[in-house]
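pasting for the record
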Amino acid sequence: MSAMKYIGFLLALVFVLMHENNAENCTACWTTYNDTAKDCTAIKTYITCLYDASGCEKRQMMMENIDKKRKSLSSCDLTKTCECQVTFMKADVAADTKKCAARKAELGCLMMSMGVACDATKKHMDIVSASETAAKAVDKCALSDTCTCQVTRAKADMAKMCTALQTEISCVASKKNKGCGGHKGPDDIGDHARKQMDKLSSCTKTDTCKCEIVYSKADLGTKAKECTAAKAAKKCLEDLKTNSTAGCDGKTARANVIKIFAQPRINKYCVAGADSVSGLGFAVGLCVLLLQMVMWI
């Protein structure tokens, strides 16, 4: 581990320890909340207190109850980051295996979210760093290499987010494992990063990168649609007829983007019957029926 990474790990660990040592217990959180008007502001304060609380066996039940109360109000929304925190606190973490799964799920949620934490003070990157440290502290709770790519991006300062997204796209391109939440693969994570780049006006998108974004922003609800989008991206890249601009990763030339981005997706999604297992099942069933008829004759 390099000196900078070691220092970063220690700072995150200190953040977690301070987070716990300065926290109230759940009973104190409830007492404070119970003495209020129990409006949205009080509920959010209570949620923050529960998240920070230490030595609390009933936190899961208490968080479930207060979140249900919050949802019953007409307008009491949480930031996406806070929603990830709340979901973690409602999870069963009685055993290390469950705690590991819950921490990974929290990280997976954080990878797709933005906004400040439940306390409305801590930044998204701070919560990601603390969650990563907490996950690694659980016995036998290793993060996948793909998840590590995501976490590195998510811990970046917004002022450096364009470069962080480029790095994430490059990082996941060579990976095979699922990401932090265990659901999204490297391709989906790369596409999400491209869409985030497209949303940031501060990011300079090359013409080659824009062709990649054509695919990432398309409706990919079925394999047929993924095939259409992949072909559109390839045509977009071929029409450029120059290798002078790099792709969304900031380094891959147009010709290679066709080879490693567009063409593999065409090969995967543009095969006959790729979107219909039912068609195959019907054909097999028909063959079986015909065979039976022949046997009867």
